[in-house]
Amino acid sequence: MHLMEFEKAFEKKISSIASAEDPAHDLLHFKRVVKASKSLCEKEGAKAEVVIPAAWLHDFVIIPKNDPRRSQASQISAEAAILFLDGLQYPQKHFQEIAHAIEAHSFSANIEAKTIEAKIVQDADRLDGLGAIGIARCFATSGLLKRPFYSEEDPFCVNREIDDRQFTIDHFFAKLFKTAASMKTDAGRAEGLRRVEVMKRYLQDLAVEIE
């Protein structure tokens, strides 16, 4: 079976997994990560046979951010994804690299991305947390967790400790602005920095409206 045919099976399966109740991890999220992965894969000369299935299946088992199993989510996803790929008779020679790319994509797992394919999938997933779409996903998640948008006394953490467990905007400072610097590919880093500027402009506009 050609890779394009396998992709149809990947999308069909993810359509049944992605939750419409969580807009930050719906089918559109997976499609964006796949699109970014393909772009980075072409620019970096990586193996599409590894990158594409890993991108489609990176969150094969979705575990909420406030779940105690969160740090194991990518490893749980990798194991389940390989069983799924085996059932599709996907070439087994790629399984180890696909599993590593899925495991290493997660922040909370803290697993070093050792292959260019793993670095690409990690970058593509992290890019989706930045820029205009990143802002939308951040607020969508805060809605699910029932967190306020910002601290009334100090919205932008000027004179207090950053606490993104308490306030949504704090997550920009705690994690998202640092994400661009953590990109593993040159193309991912450049796009990440562009998206961070989008977010900084948003905070400038927000300041005008709330202060």
Biggest pleated-sheet summary: none
Number of domains: 2
Order of helices and strands: HHHHHHHHH
Count of strand segments: 0
DSSP helix fraction: 55-70%
- Average pLDDT: 91
What structural class do the secondary elements suggest? mainly alpha
Query: How far is it from the N-terminal to the C-terminal residue, by CA?
Result: 58 Å
Count of alpha/pi helices: 9
- Uncertain segments of ≥5 residues (pLDDT<50)? none
What is the global morphology? globular
Whole-angstrom Rg: 18 Å
Which strand-content bin applies to the residues? under 5%
Give the key terms.
211 residues; mainly alpha; Hypothetical protein af1432; 2 domains; 9 helices
Account of the 3D structure:
This protein is mainly α and 211 residues long. The chain has two domains: 117 residues; 83 residues, Hypothetical protein af1432 (Orthogonal Bundle), CATH 1.10.3210.50. The protein contains nine helices and no strands. Helix 1 runs parallel beside helix 3 and helix 5 packs parallel to helix 6. The longest helix is centred in the C-terminal third of the chain and has 25 residues. The model has no long low-confidence stretch (mean pLDDT 91).
